[in-house]
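User: Hi! I have a protein structure encoded as tokens and I'd like to know what sequence might fold into it. I'm fairly new to this, so please keep things simple.
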């Protein structure tokens, strides 16, 4: 029995149930139950969140092992630093120059004192990358989505959004109080029916929100078909291209460039926390919309600007994407090589961007698998229940341009061994349980 079950008097009680029941608990009780859950994870050596990294963000990192307390090297397959730019010399030089010239930070929001010439330069550059008139910069991708939704959308509007949309977009919807309906992931037929059913509304605008590259599965939204559909119904298409920018398209412009529809995407959101390797976010679109957002997106107005160091780093990353197209090529080669090797193991993976999801079969213990990956020195992120339904649990492999063929071989080798061990173990568990029931 786990301590969390013990605490609840031995009931079969999982984290999801705890969250539901927690609504009726006082804070002290909620935190105590959750504390017991965390202690259980630690006791079983399954607490692999918050692993402390002590080196630069690279293809190999140094991590403090939560079990032994010792520092050890691990191959990084869990970072969104897709082009490996976090340690690129050009980015480091530009960041240092900005630090010396502008100081450590700006000490205020953009509408007051926090708007430097570098911020303006980056806005204009991002607008060019996205084929838009203008852009504005937020302190994170999360803030960009919340600011975009709460700044533009209102109660008289209607939003149709993909069921796999990121939490930041969903939180924006809740905060804005805008009527919103989900359509099944990438189900354009359902979206079409929803647009048809709501056609001819007298008031408000209709928005359709998708991600260029979906963050969990790495699959793409068909922006060519979506932009046609939205145009036909007069709906405003909003694309979160967090994982597409700097990864897709001949020039790394993103998912719209990949589909050749840059001109047809009215509003694009992006982050600096993936390919650009720092933090921050942006929205690009028509100038009147961007001007309006500067005064109506509270996440922009009431939040301090990013430091010039981050801004200079993103500008330098854009230079590298332009000047070293071979990085994109390496990334794509690595993704295709990893996918081909994983298919040899029987995984049905056909990645189009830099994310490869490994679905965990029902009955396989994802926490045991995580521990084995960790023990084998492979850093991957597990997406576990209750964050997703049991049937959708997965490991999310992120490929970088700087991974070597040997890194990928090592990853695939470990995946094969982890799967073999966990499947055997889960089969033994099932056998043992059946035996117990039969006895
Ligand atoms: C699709 C998507 N949108 C938005 C965000 C939020 O971006 P950030 O982490 O830069 O705040 C993320 C981050 O994981 C994301 O995956």
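Assistant: Happy to help. Inverse folding works backwards from shape to sequence: for each of the 439 positions I chose a residue that suits the local structure. Here it is:
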């Amino acid at each position: 029995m786990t301590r969390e079950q013990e605490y609840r008097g031995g009931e079969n009680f999982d984290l999801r149930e705890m969250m539901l029941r927690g609504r009726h608990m006082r804070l002290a009780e909620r935190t105590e139950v959750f504390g017991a859950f965390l202690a259980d994870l630690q006791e079983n050596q399954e607490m692999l969140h918050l692993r402390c990294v002590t080196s630069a963000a690279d293809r190999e990192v140094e991590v403090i092992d939560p079990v032994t307390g010792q520092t050890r090297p691990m191959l990084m397959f869990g970072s969104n630093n897709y082009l490996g730019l976090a340690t690129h010399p050009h980015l480091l030089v530009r960041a240092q120059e900005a630090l010396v010239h502008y100081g450590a930070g700006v000490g205020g929001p953009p509408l007051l004192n926090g708007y430097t010439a570098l911020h303006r330069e980056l806005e204009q550059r991002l607008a060019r990358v996205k084929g838009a008139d203008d852009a504005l910069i937020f302190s994170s991708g999360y803030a960009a989505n919340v600011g975009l939704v709460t700044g533009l959308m209102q109660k008289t509007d209607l939003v149709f959004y993909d069921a796999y949309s990121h939490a930041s977009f969903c939180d924006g919807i809740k905060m804005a109080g805008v009527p919103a309906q989900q359509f099944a992931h990438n189900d354009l037929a359902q979206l079409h029916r929803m647009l048809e059913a709501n056609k001819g509304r007298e008031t408000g605008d209709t928005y359709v929100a998708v991600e260029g590259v979906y963050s969990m599965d790495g699959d793409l939204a068909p922006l060519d078909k979506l932009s046609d559909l939205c145009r036909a119904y007069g709906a405003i298409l909003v694309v979160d291209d967090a994982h597409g920018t700097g990864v897709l398209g001949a020039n790394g412009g993103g998912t719209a460039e990949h589909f050749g529809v840059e001109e047809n995407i009215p509003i694009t959101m992006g982050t600096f926390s993936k390919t650009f390797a720092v933090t921050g976010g942006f929205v690009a679109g028509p100038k009147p919309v961007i001007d309006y957002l500067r005064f109506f997106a509270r996440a922009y107005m009431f939040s301090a600007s990013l430091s010039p160091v981050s801004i200079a780093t993103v500008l330098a990353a854009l230079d590298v994407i332009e000047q070293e197209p071979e990085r994109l090529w390496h990334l794509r080669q690595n993704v295709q090589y990893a996918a081909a090797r994983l298919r040899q193991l029987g995984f049905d993976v056909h990645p189009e961007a830099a994310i490869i999801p490994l679905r965990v079969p029902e009955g396989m213990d994802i926490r045991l698998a995580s521990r084995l990956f960790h023990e084998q020195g492979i850093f991957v992120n597990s997406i576990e229940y209750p964050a997703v339904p049991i049937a959708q649990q997965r490991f999310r492999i992120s490929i970088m341009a700087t991974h070597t063929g040997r890194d990928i071989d090592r990853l695939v080798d470990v995946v094969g061994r982890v799967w073999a061990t966990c499947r055997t173990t889960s089969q033994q568990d099932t056998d043992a349980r059946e035996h117990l029931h039969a006895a």
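A useful reference point when you look it over: Residues 140-142, 145, 166, 168, 211, 215, 240, 242, 271, 273, 279, 281 surround pyridoxal-5'-phosphate (CB under 6 Å). Feel free to ask if any position seems puzzling.
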